[in-house]
Design a protein that fits this description.
425 residues, Rossmann fold, Dna Ligase, domain 1, D-amino Acid Aminotransferase, Chain A, domain 1, 4 domains, 13 helices, 23 strands, globular, binds adenosine monophosphate, binds glycine
Length: 425
């Protein structure tokens, strides 16, 4: 089966590498991909909004499966378009339609959904210009920190956590005034939850689900979780405190009610469901839903699978996931992101990356890279991930940083403390 993977990050590179291992996989294409995906398959460059070009490519190249990596095309309804296309009768599409993707695309939809199906999450208020005074009163009458979330997609920047009361009120007004464009014309103000975050992933066909390995993501740019939020600077799987009891709690109180709720709402859902959770006083609460895999969580979760990924995906698209158990590698995996100095603020691109040939390629997942005149250059903020296994977290950390020391580029930056908080003392 020929496969087209849409996206250009480490997530897509990791999905492609795993799919390449399947006996059933034919050619793999990435659009647009990066310098690393060129070694796994072929890169093409089709604008995801140019539906006719996408369709033509799928027909001409006998594509049997499209994997939609990032959230934006899912929220925009690309999966609906592809799977409803009479001209593509054999095509399987991994990723939910626009209705299911609203779990990520609209915080207000996700919060109302969780409330309706009694899925544990932070208490909230929904504010737009018509009830701004309610929002300001809430801030005046409650202690901070204040959590303000743009309703729509804002490239991972739409959540503000503010300690100061006056600053929170000013930011609320700015958001409603278009700080994040249309995405913040509505704002969700949430109760601040204090606890440890972790992420759980399921692949679902809309009726049943396969539970994938869980992971912890390191979102802040600086060590000890300081500095601005990023897409993610590193990840670890498994999460040591995610024991059988917590797993069962998450399945019973979060995953199953979410899938049942989608069914009750008549929302078909084929693809990954990513639950961003926080453990507060022994109870896991949902911080956010995503309608796709995480990045860099994918780079530790997917390499740990010992079940054929293509079989799993086909079972999902064909509605046959019942009782599907996923086998996983023993031990741990740690991924560390090498970023361009300055990220997530301004940074330079076009720096040559040295030393890549010295790495075990199984452990390298490219993101912001491109090939120019035979050289591999940086082309984004998060440049690549190194993800290594180990018999435990400490060994995986050591393996990861040993590999990281073999590469360099001008102003390379990476966190040195990924996984340290999870080590047993
Ligand atoms: P989100 O994009 O919704 O995942 O939010 C980004 C980050 O903000 C999360 O990873 C959390 O670290 C933090 N966050 C979001 N909501 C809350 C909350 N209600 N309480 C505390 N922290 C939160
Ligand atoms: N690493 C977080 C995300 O992919 O949303």
């Amino acid at each position: 089966m020929n496969i087209l993977i849409l996206g250009s990050g480490g997530r897509e590179h990791a999905l492609g590498k795993a799919l390449k291992k399947s006996q059933k996989t034919g050619k793999i294409f990435f659009s647009p991909g990066n310098a690393g995906t060129l070694l796994t398959g072929s890169n093409i460059n089709i604008d995801h909004n140019d539906y006719d070009a996408l369709r033509l490519f799928i027909q001409k190249n006998d594509i049997g499966l499209v994997v939609i990596g990032p959230e934006a095309p899912l929220v925009d309804g690309l999966a609906d378009q592809l799977s409803g296309d009479d001209g593509l009768p054999q095509l399987r599409v991994l990723g939910p339609g626009s209705k299911g993707a609203r779990l990520e695309g609209s915080k207000s939809f996700a919060k109302a959904f969780m409330k309706k199906y009694t899925i544990p999450t932070a208490a909230y208020l929904e504010i737009d210009t018509s009830n701004l005074s309610d929002g300001l009163n809430y801030i005046d009458n409650n202690e901070g920190p204040y959590v303000l979330k743009a309703d729509g997609l804002a490239a991972g920047k739409g959540v503000l956590i503010i300690k100061d009361r006056e600053e929170a009120k000013a930011q609320l007004k700015e958001m409603l005034d278009g700080k994040f464009g249309a995405a913040s014309s509505k704002v969700v103000i949430e109760e601040f939850l204090d606890g440890i975050e972790f992420s759980v992933f399921a692949l679902t066909d809309g009726n049943n689900f396969a539970l994938l390995p869980e992971a912890k993501d390191y979102k802040r740019v600086g060590e000890n979780d300081e500095g601005p939020n990023t897409g993610g600077m590193g990840s670890v799987s498994p999460v040591p405190f995610f024991d059988e009891q917590l797993k069962q709690q998450v399945i019973d109180s979060v995953i199953q009610p979410t899938i049942d709720g989608l069914k009750k709402e008549n929302i078909p859902y084929t693809g990954f469901l990513f639950f961003g959770l926080i453990l507060c006083d022994g109870q896991a609460k949902v911080i956010e839903y995503n309608c796709r895999m995480g990045d860099p969580e994918t780079q530790v979760v997917i390499p740990r699978l010992r079940t054929d990924l293509l079989d799993l995906i086909i079972d999902s698209t064909d509605g046959k996931l019942s009782n599907k158990k996923v086998a996983t590698e023993d031990g741990s995996r740690v991924a560390v992101i090498a970023a361009s100095g300055g990220y997530p603020n301004d940074y330079e691109k076009g720096k040559e990356i040295f030393g890549l040939e010295n790495l075990n390629q199984d452990n390298v997942f490219h993101a912001g890279t491109q090939i120019k005149d035979g050289k591999t250059l940086t082309s984004g903020g998060r440049v690549l991930a190194i993800s290594c296994p180990g018999k435990n977290i400490q060994e995986a950390i050591d393996n990861c940083y040993r590999e990281m020391n073999k590469i360099c580029f001008d102003k390379i930056y990476y966190r040195k403390d990924i996984g340290k908080d999870l080590l047993e003392t």
